[in-house]
Amino acid sequence: QVQLVESGGGLVQPGGSLRLSCAASGFRFSRFDMNWYRQAPGNQRELVAAISSAGGSTSYADSVKGRFTISRDNAQNTVYLQMNSLKPEDTAVYYCNAIGPGRVPWGQGTQVTVSS
Question: Hey, what long-range contacts does 15-20 have (CB within 8 A, 24 or more apart)?
Fold first, then answer.
């Protein structure tokens, strides 16, 4: 079954850290570029970070640059998002997304809430 399963979200205080994981299955993970998106209530889904299929190239939204790090482990079919110095405006549901030779449905997302 082709799927993405996000995990690692939760409630964290401002300034704290979380590490999100996205486990992929049912497709050739190493051939896909991977992205992390987020969607806050009332907002459109926005691209947060992206990583190329081999992991050699990454990019970030200006709002998270210097605080978030995307990485991947192709042996474990997993992409990660390390989030540091979290702010209340980072509160959202976070989704991973696969771009490559085939359609991969969105996962269910993982909720991140930054609040004191």
Answer: 15/85, 15/86, 16/86, 16/114, 17/82, 17/83, 17/84, 17/85, 17/86, 18/83, 18/86, 18/112, 19/80, 19/81, 19/82, 19/83, 20/80, 20/81, 20/83, 20/94, 20/110, 20/112
Q: What's the farthest any 2 CA atoms get from each other in the chain? A: 43
Burial class of residue 29 (count of CB atoms within 10 Å of its CB; 0-12, 13-18, 19+): buried
Quick: pLDDT tens for 33-88. 999 999 999 999 999 999 999 999 999 999 999 999 999 999 999 999 999 999 99
Convert the chain into a string of H (helix), E (strand) and C (coil): CCEEEEECCEEECCCCCEEEEEEEECCCHHHCEEEEEEECCCCCCEEEEEECCCCCCEEECCCCCCCEEEEEECCCCEEEEEECCCCHHHCEEEEEEEECCCCCCCCCCEEEEECC
